[in-house]
Amino acid sequence: MAPIHERIRQDLLIKERSLWTALTSADPGPEIEKLSNDEANLLFPKTPILTLDGEPSMKQMLKPPFHHFDAFQLSDVRVIIIDLMAGTVTYTINASRGKESYHATGSTTWSQASDGEWRIVTHTETLL
């Protein structure tokens, strides 16, 4: 594997962890907005497709206590490098809040913007 691919793989894993840290925080909206490309689509179980300017907007739907968990773990993590400026991370999610548990598969596709930052193109979760 080319060294550049390994760097992309590591960058995407760091970004995915940042996404989940934001998703499970007390107020995820502002950070998710910063991580998202202008055209981003987020697909959560039992929720309309969220976009920055859609109805309901990402900001409206991601306000507290959206996805607020005490702990989360990503397993079976795979990074697929699409090209030098795009990649997808897939995984299984196990999260908990008190005695409540959340089990799903997840996938996030990232693209690198002209400023060099990786941004979410689409994020999907499917309950198991």
Quote the average pLDDT: 92
Strand content: 35-45%
Largest sheet: 5 strands, mixed
Q: Which structural class do you get from the secondary structure elements?
A: alpha+beta
Classified by CATH, the class is: Alpha Beta
| Tally of separate helices | 3
Please tally the β strands and state the result: 5
Kindly give the count of domains.
Answer: 1
Fraction of residues in H or I helices: 25-40%
N-to-C SSE string, H for helix and E for strand: HHEHEEEE
Strand order of the largest sheet: 1-5-4-3-2
Distance between the termini: 33 Å
Q: What is the second-level CATH architecture? A: Roll
Summarize the structure in words:
It holds the Pfam family DUF4440. It comes from Aspergillus avenaceus. Residues 16-120 form the DUF4440 domain. InterPro entries: DUF4440, NTF2-like_dom_sf. This is DUF4440 domain-containing protein. The chain has helices at residues 3-23, 29-35, 58-61; strands at residues 36-43, 71-83, 86-97, 100-112, 118-127. Strands 1-5-4-3-2 form a 5-stranded mixed β-sheet. The mean pLDDT is 92. Helix 1 (3-23) runs antiparallel to helix 2. By secondary structure, it is α+β, with helices and mostly antiparallel strands. It has one domain (3-120): Nuclear Transport Factor 2, Chain: A. The protein starts with a helix and ends with a strand. Strand 3 and strand 4 form a beta hairpin.
